[in-house]
Amino acid sequence: MAESTKKATLNIDGTTYELPIYSPTAGPDVIDIRKLYADAGVFTYDPGFTSTASCDSTITYIDGGKGELLHRGYPIDQLAGKSHYLEVCFLLLYGYLPTAAELEKFEITVTRHTMVHEQMHYFFRGFRRDSHPMATMVGVVGAMSAFYHDSTDVNDAWHREVAAIRLIAKLPTIAAMAYKYSIGQPFVYPRNDLDYAANFLHMCFSVPAEEYNVNPIVARAMDRIFILHADHEQNASTSTVRLASSSGANPFACIAAGIACLWGPAHGGANQACLEMLREIGTVDRIPEFIARAKDKNDPFRLMGFGHRVYKNTDPRAKVLKQSADEVLELLGVDDNPLLQVAKELEHVALNDPYFIEKKLFPNVDFYSGIILEAIGFPTSMFTPIFALSRTVGWISQWKEMIADPQMKIGRPRQLYLGETSRDYVDIENR
Ligand code: CMC
């Protein structure tokens, strides 16, 4: 970490403490409070980490005011427009854009790891058919440590590399298997002649009874969705992966923890919730009713796909997806999709409403992604698994960065205890 050039001064009951301030390459300065408890005997209090940097990182940067998202310095709209998912994976994992030879080698390596252990097919059969694919994924990805225990030693750099490649390569296979299992169709093996996105579509939509040809337009849209979800600095699921790994737990268990966290409707589960909301609204004339509910403090309803902890101007991923939704639906000949019309009108109404303007609430990545995924043919239950498989590279890049950091410590937040102080146990007959 860079040397501290500035200091903050904290005064507690007349005693002054000097705290180093670090200046990042981008973003606000950070006050180092690591020695505060040892020196002053106090903790800091920040539920939800609204003002706390939990680590230093060189992977992803968000400027919430500008609506900017950079991976290793490259803007997300350039990556979505010019790159493809496996190149973005390389960039996130290794920190630079690969040469043609490096990219080819990386693509071959990932492609050669897409099959899962055959025994996993039987493992799937332990789940109920109507399990949500996210429930199945949490279980199966966690179980990868039982199937691939030759890459679970986090202190071995080669194990870490193999685990990273296995996770990136096998997550689409596992997500597609979870889907096939939920609809009672046979599992489809990966095909090495297809690229990452096309292969995922093949594993989801082909059946043994007839030939399935992947539509290149759909494959490109799928790839773009993968890119837009690839990483997002220290969000809830990434922080979960980092915290779980800080104890030295194996990478498969940690990614399963990340998937579990992502599932919540305030995080990755919002894409499913958003499409369900658009369906419930149904027609544009019902929009005012839902806007009123979202503004009503006595109603827990929130506009799903709206708002973000960091973006306070625009979510650059939503911008790309809105354009992509238009293109994909037109190319698929479903541009009169009523959900797209409801979404566009809802966005228009909300963006002109003083409540949403004042609270800086804008469409986020989940607002338009569901419309594209539905047009491709996915049921809503697959939206969050698709987010999870795309985000795996982000989780694993952040995990690798953390494990390689010599300053790594087990994560152990403190608390503001407001419970009872010590008291004597009361025997049951005396209570
Ligand atoms: N609809 C209506 N009001 C909202 C919404 C919304 N979607 N989001 C925030 N608000 C209000 C909220 O009621 C609060 O009002 P007040 O100040 O009067 O109490 C204010 O805006 C600030 O909200 P917050 O919950 O304190 O903000 P946060 O930074 O903790 O939460 C959020 C961010 C994304 C969880 C939240 O905006 C939300 O619940 N959005 C809907 C779910 C969603 O779309 N999640 C996907 C996020 S992007 C993808 C991802 O990260 O996985």
Q: What would your notes on this structure say?
A:
The chain has 431 residues and is mostly helical. Helix content is 50%, strand content 6%. The protein has helices spanning 36-40, 76-82, 85-94, 100-111, 119-124, 133-147, 157-182, 196-205, 216-228, 236-245, 251-262, 270-281, 287-295, 316-331, 338-351, 354-358, 365-376, 383-403, and strands at 6-12, 15-22, 30-31, 60-63, 68-71, 74-75. It is globular, with a radius of gyration of 23 Å. The relative contact order is 0.12. The mean pLDDT is 94. Bound molecules: carboxymethyl coenzyme *A.
Write the SSE topology.
Blueprint: E1 6-12, E2 15-22, E3 30-31, H1 36-40, E4 60-63, E5 68-71, E6 74-75, H2 76-82, H3 85-94, H4 100-111, H5 119-124, H6 133-147, H7 157-182, H8 196-205, H9 216-228, H10 236-245, H11 251-262, H12 270-281, H13 287-295, H14 316-331, H15 338-351, H16 354-358, H17 365-376, H18 383-403
Helix pairs in contact: 2-9, 3-18, 6-7, 6-11, 7-8, 7-18, 8-9, 9-14, 9-17, 9-18, 10-11, 10-18, 11-18, 12-17, 14-17
The protein binds carboxymethyl coenzyme *A.
